[in-house]
Design brief:
The chain has 17 helices and 13 strands. The chain is of the alpha/beta class and about 450 residues long. About 45% of the residues are buried. It binds 2-acetamido-2-deoxy-beta-D-glucopyranose (NAG) (7 copies). This is O-fucosyltransferase family protein.
């Protein structure tokens, strides 16, 4: 939970700041290559007779269960002072983290964040190919402000009254630009009335996702919770999820006797990172960190998922979130335990849904499908997996389904007190009965680094 593990972003910094361009590009490509994350459905109430006890009602994803930060009594965030940030780039995870950092920086300075630009595509070098897309094309503007009211605030450029009243704040870079210096700069800006007086503070510098991490996990979780996809993208994710559920229903109907037909189909989403670039990258990571737990082979993943206690009680659709290049060979579809029915985008027949969209939106759909899965299994060294587990953990806490620090056991005694609702697992770490290790985010962690840049810390 602290800085003892060599975090991946240090390496990004390394390569970035030292202009070891090649190494950097390699890391970048790895980070981005897997765009194949998948997500699934909104779980329905599930029969409690099974060992699983984690099915949440459909409403669990509705805003009613989200935290509304009504801090208005405490003054909230100034709406006449703004922070402007440079275009945010890289993969979906990096962009989400960077957006959260931009908001938390704005909160620290008690300013409204001006609608940031995200990047729809994955080009890193040629900035003109980044396909800028404003935040509100991906996430709902008003919803964000109502959910995060009083905590952080989003504004529009048209809210600015004096367009020339701008202070340019240069972010340093390089090894010498330490976390302390970065924080120090922000504190000075905050305290200096001659700077704080400006209507707009415009942050300059490359790659805001490299900004240092000054905030606890809980703050990030609060911002992520307010990021609700626009309806169009949500609907696409729902189409994918209902396709998965539909297949589950059909299979249950055809394979089981009439008695069990009342069972609701549920699905497992597996963020399966086995593409070539990842394997090369993770082997290097293992060497560097002197651990053996990072890389899991296809076989290991299949075996561990098959050993999840209770998973085999009915035919179950396993949604495979895999990189696009793995869609071609089909080998990920064979070798699963009986009763587990593997599907990826192509086999599911939803490839056409994805194809319409640029990278960022494809990823966002995948993310949503994984987020909504009844069971999620990912790699604890993957930022994508980690963010999904973070959001799932946050929702469980919000619902009161788990208590913080209770180490992944549910409050409910409904299934003998042994299960956890809506579980997530890390397949790269061995858990009970030969299955993957249960995984929940420790919201008390003091920095996002522990959960997002390569960690085997699953807090269970
Ligand atoms: C399901 O659970 C209910 C209540 O706990 C019980 O009465 C019923 O027999 C169970 N059904 C099966 C198939 O186990
Ligand atoms: C405002 O919200 C933050 C984060 O939720 C909380 O820690 C703080 O106590 C709240 N302040 C007031 C005055 O309500
Ligand atoms: C922001 O400034 C307003 C007005 O000065 C104050 O009431 C509020 O508490 C401040 N909010 C934060 C988060 O510092
Ligand atoms: C706008 O801001 C600039 C720079 O602070 C200032 O010189 C100018 O007087 C302001 N204009 C108005 C109309 O307030
Ligand atoms: C790597 O870890 C193993 C066991 O955890 C230990 O015995 C070994 O000394 C470590 N090697 C290095 C280079 O730290
Ligand atoms: C769960 O069951 C145990 C033992 O049966 C009991 O002591 C405990 O109070 C129960 N917890 C809840 C939250 O009902
Ligand atoms: C969560 O993080 C806090 C702060 O780092 C730590 O004290 C606590 O032991 C962690 N809890 C678990 C269950 O790992």
């Amino acid at each position: 939970m602290n800085l003892s593990k060599p975090p991946k972003h240090i390496r990004f910094l390394d390569c970035y700041l030292n202009s070891k361009v090649r190494r950097c590009l390699f890391l970048i490509s790895i980070a981005l290559i897997f765009r194949a994350l998948f997500l699934l459905t909104t779980p329905l109430a599930f029969k409690h007779n099974t060992t699983f006890d984690y099915w949440l009602s459909t409403s669990s994803f509705s805003s009613s269960s989200r935290l509304v930060h009504d801090n208005s009594s405490g003054g909230g965030i100034r709406s006449d002072k703004f922070l402007e940030v440079p275009q945010i780039a890289w993969g979906l995870n990096n962009q989400k983290i960077a957006v959260a950092r931009a908001f938390l920086t704005a909160r620290m300075l008690n300013r409204t964040l001006l609608l940031p630009s995200l990047s729809a595509s994955l080009f890193y070098k040629e900035v003109n190919l980044l396909q800028s897309v404003t935040f509100d094309k991906i996430f709902q503007f008003d919803k964000f402000n109502s959910l995060c009211n009083g905590f952080v605030q989003l504004g529009r450029f048209s809210d600015i009254s004096n367009k020339t009243d701008v202070f340019d704040l240069n972010k340093g870079s390089g090894r010498k630009w330490t976390m302390e210096r970065d924080l120090d700069q922000l504190r000075k800006v905050k305290q200096d009335p001659s700077i704080d007086g400006y209507e707009v503070i415009r942050i300059l510098g490359k790659n805001p996702f490299l900004w240092h991490d000054h905030w606890p996990v809980r703050d990030y979780a609060n911002v992520f919770e307010c990021l609700v996809l626009v309806d169009e993208i949500t609907q696409e994710a729902e189409r994918v999820v209902s396709k998965i559920r539909e297949i589950g229903s059909q299979v249950i109907e055809s394979k089981t006797d009439s008695l069990s037909r009342t069972q609701q189909p549920y699905y497992v989403a597996v963020h399966m990172r086995i593409e070539k670039d990842w394997m090369i990258h993770c082997k290097k990571l293992q060497q560097r960190n002197n651990v053996t737990q990072i890389c899991s082979s296809k076989e290991e993943i299949m075996e561990r998922v098959g050993n999840i206690v209770g998973i085999n009680q009915q035919p179950t659709v396993v949604y495979l979130a895999v990189a696009d290049d793995l869609l071609e060979d089909g080998s990920v579809l064979s070798g699963w335990k009986e009763g587990l029915l593997p599907y990826e985008k192509k086999k599911l027949g939803v490839w056409d849904i994805y194809k319409k969209y640029p990278y960022l939106i494809q990823s966002a759909i995948d993310y949503e499908v994984c987020l909504r899965a009844d069971v999620f299994v990912g790699n604890s060294y993957s930022t994508f997996s980690s963010l999904i587990v973070l959001e799932r953990s946050q929702k469980l806490l919000r619902l009161g389904a788990v208590t913080e620090g209770s180490s992944c056991t549910t409050n409910s005694n409904e299934s003998g007190g042994s299960g956890i609702k809506w579980p997530s697992y890390a397949y790269n770490i061995l858990g009970e009965s030969g299955g993957p290790k249960k995984w929940m985010t420790n919201m008390s962690d003091t920095s996002l680094q522990a959960i997002s840049y390569g960690s085997n810390d699953v807090s269970c």
